[in-house]
Amino acid sequence: MFSFLKRKLKNQKGAIDKVIVTLLLIMMGVGAAAGLKNWADEKIETTKTNAGNKIDSVVNESTTTTTTTPPQQD
Hints:
- The structure is a single chain.
- By secondary structure, the chain is mainly α.
- The protein is about 85% helix and about 0% strand.
- The chain has helices at about 1-10, 15-70.
């Protein structure tokens, strides 16, 4: 099986180059996909943390404002 494949590749001009380039492109695609997923996961966590902090600060501001402000009398 391997000898047939070797003979077939040797008979075709540039076949080895095509195989090498194809493997390189596959490796680059897998690496890019893994990097994109990692980047997206980091962004999601950062966004969740920032949103949580902002929500907490707004809630604390709101409760502080309502508890310290005396009710208005007409």
